[in-house]
Specification:
The chain has helices at 10-29, 70-78, 116-130, 142-150, 159-168, 181-193, 248-264, 274-283, 294-302; strands spanning 33-34, 40-41, 54-56, 62-65, 84-91, 103-112, 135-141, 201-209, 218-219, 225-233, 236-243, 287-293. Strand 10 and strand 11 form a beta hairpin. The chain is built from 9 helices and 12 strands. Helix 2 (70-78) packs parallel to helix 8, helix 5 (159-168) packs parallel to helix 6 and helix 7 packs antiparallel against helix 8 (274-283).
Length: 318
């Protein structure tokens, strides 16, 4: 039996330590406070695309392993913490593969007074410190990324446009009625747009459709767009950031819409985080926040093809 051995090389484990040292220095010079928040919560994430691990607390109650430290970090922001950052283990059920492990390391930070454009710039600065020698960062709107990679405007697209693009690329798309508007855009983005981004350096995509706002603000316009961004390197999603929503009523509406969707699709129902909503009502300061996959960043720094090469023991050997 040899599967007791780590899948990461000792050099990659040392590289992780080197990046952690640089990471702490980066935030220390900017006077961003390092914090620590619970991994277990009575509430979970309602996001329709993320599956939480549910565990029992021994007294008949349900607990959820966090998929991100976002909710308690926002409670700290509402309590007056100022700028904060955290690196922690997070957990997502069903996510395993070349770039996924159900337990992984997430870097998350929040900057008061920033919008998503300012936070993109700081994310680029951090990545340049941790993974030097890459091309300067590229910035594309969601619309421009689609126009460049698949030749159509996602804000004016139909399912037929998506099907044609996928078929021309040799994919076998589902039937037209099987996905909604965002489902088709997500499929085209995941298959054809995102893998072409960040080759040789970071690419940021911003101004997503308002229907994909998640926890971000929506900027009015024709069409309205979500004030969020994603960052890609070597065709791999690295980070997801928001100009954060500070409206508790709208946040509750989005949570409830997510729960309705989950129930209709037969997904596990997850209770809303009422403490987060209370914190937002109390007063979440204007801020921007971003979550960055630290293991994936380490993959790019090490030139690794799989996440198993940069973590000691992946889930199937844990």
């Amino acid at each position: 039996m040899t599967d007791w051995q780590p899948t990461a090389s000792l050099s990659n484990l040392r590289l992780r330590t080197e990046l952690l040292t640089k990471l702490r220095a980066f935030f220390a010079t900017r006077k961003v406070l390092e914090v620590d928040t619970p991994a277990l919560s009575r509430a979970g994430v309602t996001d329709r695309h993320i599956a939480s691990f549910r565990v029992e607390d021994g007294r008949g109650g349900a607990l959820y392993l966090h998929t991100s430290p976002e909710f308690p970090m926002k409670r700290l922001l509402a309590a007056g913490s100022g700028d904060i950052w955290q690196l922690c283990k997070v957990f997502r059920s069903g996510e395993a593969g070349r770039m996924h492990n159900p337990e992984f390391s997430m870097l998350e930070w929040y900057r008061l007074g920033f919008d998503h454009h300012q936070l993109m710039a700081e994310t680029a600065e951090l990545v340049a410190v941790l993974v030097p020698g890459r091309k300067p960062a590229e910035y594309l709107s969601y619309r421009d990324a689609f126009l460049r990679e698949v030749g159509f405007d996602p804000f004016a697209a139909s399912p037929k446009d998506c099907i044609v693009a996928l078929e021309q690329a040799g994919r076998h798309p589902p039937k037209e009625q099987e996905l909604d508007y965002d489902g088709w855009l997500d499929l085209v983005a995941g298959e054809l747009v995102y893998p072409a981004l960040g080759l040789g350096g970071l690419t940021f995509i911003y101004d997503y459709p308002a229907s994909q706002a998640a926890l971000s603000r929506v900027q009015p316009g024709n069409p309205p767009v979500a004030e969020r961004f994603e960052a890609f390197m070597d065709g791999m999603e690295l980070a997801n950031g928001f100009h954060e929503l500070t409206d508790a009523v709208e946040q509750r509406r989005r949570f409830e819409a997510d729960r309705t969707y989950r129930q209709a699709e037969g997904l596990m129902d997850v209770p809303m985080d009422e403490r987060l909503l209370a914190a937002i009502r109390h007063g979440l300061p204007s801020c921007a926040g971003v979550a960055l996959g630290f293991d994936r960043l380490l993959m790019t720094a090490a030139g690794a093809r799989t996440i198993a090469e940069v973590i000691a023991f992946p889930f199937d050997q844990a």
